Amino acid sequence: MSPTTAIQTLLSSRYIVPVEPLDTVLTEHAIAIDNGRIIDILPRARAVEKYAPNTHLEYDQHILMPGLINAHTHAAMALMRGVASDLSLMDWLQNHIWPLEKQHVDEQFVQDGSELAIAEMLRGGTTCFNDMYFFPEVTARVATAIGMRAVIGMIMLEFPTRYAASAEEYLSKGLAMFDAYKSDPLITNVFAPHAPYTVSDNSLRKISQLANELDLPVHMHVHETAGEIDDSLRQYGMRPLARLEQHGLVNPNLCGVHMTQLTAEEIGLISAAGVNVIHCPESNLKLASGLCPVQALQTAKVRVLIGTDSCASNDDLDMFSEIRTAALLAKGVSQDATALSAQSAIRAATIDAAHALGLGSEIGSLEVGKSADIIAIECNSIESQPHFDLYSHLTYSTDRSRVCDVFVAGRQLLKDRTLTTTSEDDIIIKAKHWSDKIASSSS
Amino acid sequence: MSPTTAIQTLLSSRYIVPVEPLDTVLTEHAIAIDNGRIIDILPRARAVEKYAPNTHLEYDQHILMPGLINAHTHAAMALMRGVASDLSLMDWLQNHIWPLEKQHVDEQFVQDGSELAIAEMLRGGTTCFNDMYFFPEVTARVATAIGMRAVIGMIMLEFPTRYAASAEEYLSKGLAMFDAYKSDPLITNVFAPHAPYTVSDNSLRKISQLANELDLPVHMHVHETAGEIDDSLRQYGMRPLARLEQHGLVNPNLCGVHMTQLTAEEIGLISAAGVNVIHCPESNLKLASGLCPVQALQTAKVRVLIGTDSCASNDDLDMFSEIRTAALLAKGVSQDATALSAQSAIRAATIDAAHALGLGSEIGSLEVGKSADIIAIECNSIESQPHFDLYSHLTYSTDRSRVCDVFVAGRQLLKDRTLTTTSEDDIIIKAKHWSDKIASSSS
């Protein structure tokens, strides 16, 4: 009997780590994809009997898993990779990052920087990123052109930049983008007020109202450093989280980034309120911002996501490294080697992130009906031998360089480690141009 | 005028980071190599006028730097990569690692495991490793066969294994190896008493005498966990470091691994005594052993080295990742973003390690007269753009997958990411054999 059902793509694989259901690893299975969606997951032998795919890719020494979700980026800052290291946070910001941004960040910078960042992320197995930066509609346009999925923040802060002159202008530009991308299959928008210390009470109230009305996530830096807490106590007589609560922002839509400074009461508060925490371990370490209590958060059933932060404080967009660092650091901080297990860390970077960002029915796991956002990881190299538990292998032993193929909504964006929808050479040339420009201005 | 001086190899490069002198980066320079040694470092244009090399390799988009020194390994345990994760130290050791070792570790295991480990290390830019494991002469033989440099520990502990039945037998086998490799150009030997809690007072005294007589480094786990301190207080009425001091081991020959538990007095003691600390940040995190006070140690002028520990607690032999984790973690632990700067971290993994291991005149920097242990790192990929300060780039943005060529004593062991002196396919086949064996025994 010859196969009867015509489909777009069949991916057969030695291993599949679907993330859902829990604790599941499939061996010698296949994923059937049509119209960009997963329509079936079944044993490899049965798949070739049942389906007649346009394309059949066979991954004989590979793991297929859902694409990673980088839950906190300032993508365009890829052009500032490593521009200022080993500096304290305020020295880094005030004497290096802010002056460089003031001088260089325009539409062209954001376009070229977003391209570089998206290229790096795709090559490392990230298929969706949650971004906060200036000229967000440019980043959305670049992501769409390349075919990458993105959650693009409607950024807002009180000080003027080339992008917007006032809080009102940030918001109106953000909402215009929101309207433009409403029915886009790859782009969703969330509110992205920068931080409690850069956004006024008035603006927080406005965003709170709008986020409730539209039921949209709010992506915001919260409790990054002890200094932020002290400043807030001085200026507002309360801790930043209390201020956000006052304005109705402490609810399941809040995705608070960093959260290194949390009292036991605050952990109780965000647990009860359903707030999500976006953990950026490498950035927190590099800037000596503080240590996020991941183990305590997970014990309190707070959903934890993982993000790289920008290339200026990390200095890469490598989610495999970030997952590993998160899993390792959680153990060191809690003095408990069972903290943030391999499976929990992988879930934080996939299904948990999808739920928090309002994409839980679309991505984050390999399940029938979801978008085919899938990565293939080679596991036959010297560095991959031996492997026992695959969650452990993915968390503690997998470099991003082992990612060979990447699909977003069924479209192959990386093939044998080469991007298919954009030119790596062009991106590198543009990055070198900016590198020269930035180096000459910062010296 | 045609070049007159015939030499073995000339390596021309866009960038050279020689590590010594401090703060130096050379652009468009070349390294002349003859008889396995660096005989000249000079501008690229002058080099081609002066030298007629048998082989001239041109690295137009690369960084040349000294090979990395992995200061703490149990190489053969590469075959136990990720066999037991997310477990507390004693559960991990007593219920997983020790039973597996008892069942599997023989000469063949050490041979196949050492091959796998050396292959992984070379592919990641490590040209020398400081090893402590059973059947050390097997690891020495494998390293020699492949052409890798190694510091092989004369391991000693009080309990019997298939390798040795008693402390005396460990020592006599170790000293036999020391005699056999005395004039080997790639292998040196050091004493490797396992830890204060596995070695008796009597054995510590013996090793102390011998190490002083022979002026050899002593490679030993010291103050890895708080539990180790408590046990020592109960059993000996003093902390392990005090016990080592009592037996004359607290001196510049001591390379104490981990050292996560140190009082201010102890930091003063090891500083005054010239003790070296081998920092294994990823292992310490994964096993929740504790946090090494790297910033305080460096402030006290204690020399800090960096090691991966074994693949059973890391789970890789990736020195670029370990350098990055060390630099990041030092900042988080000290709450000071200037702690363990990029340059300090690279020095810890090169010249500082060389000095502590008695190889300061041979390796650890690219200087005339030293052995040509050199790695070439490609810096033209998406992930490498842009780069400003090269120390920062090497520490925070360089994956080991960017290492393309590796030389030890002038001999090319990695060429375009392929090993030249051993078969990667054979190593993978053997690793899979062991993987099946271990998986069936541990289930």
Topology, pairings included?
Two copies of one chain form a homodimer.
Chain A: E1 5-16, E2 26-34, E3 37-43, H1 44-50, E4 51-66, E5 68-73, H2 89-104, H3 107-123, E6 126-131, H4 136-146, E7 149-156, H5 167-180, E8 187-193, H6 201-214, E9 218-222, H7 226-236, H8 240-246, E10 254-258, H9 264-273, E11 276-279, H10 281-286, H11 294-299, E12 304-306, H12 319-334, H13 342-348, H14 351-356, E13 374-378, H15 390-396, E14 403-408, E15 411-415, E16 418-419, H16 424-442
Parallel strand pairs in A: 1-4, 5-6, 6-7, 7-8, 9-10, 10-11, 11-12
Antiparallel strand pairs in A: 1-2, 2-3, 4-13, 13-14, 14-15, 15-16
Helix pairs in contact in A: 3-4, 3-16, 12-13, 13-15
Question: What can you tell me about this protein's structure?
Answer:
2 copies of one chain form a homodimer. With 443 residues, the first copy, chain A, is α/β, with parallel strands linked by helices. Chain A folds into 2 domains: 112 residues, Urease, subunit C, domain 1, CATH 2.30.40; 289 residues, TIM Barrel (Alpha-Beta Barrel). The first copy, chain A, has 16 helices and 16 strands. Chain A has an 8-stranded mixed sheet with strand order 3-2-1-4-13-14-15-16, with helices on one face. In chain A, strands 5-6-7-8 form a 4-stranded parallel sheet. A 4-stranded parallel sheet of chain A has the order 9-10-11-12. In chain A, α3 packs across α16 and α12 packs across α13. The N and C termini of chain A lie far apart (71 Å). The interface between A and B is large, with 71 and 71 residues.
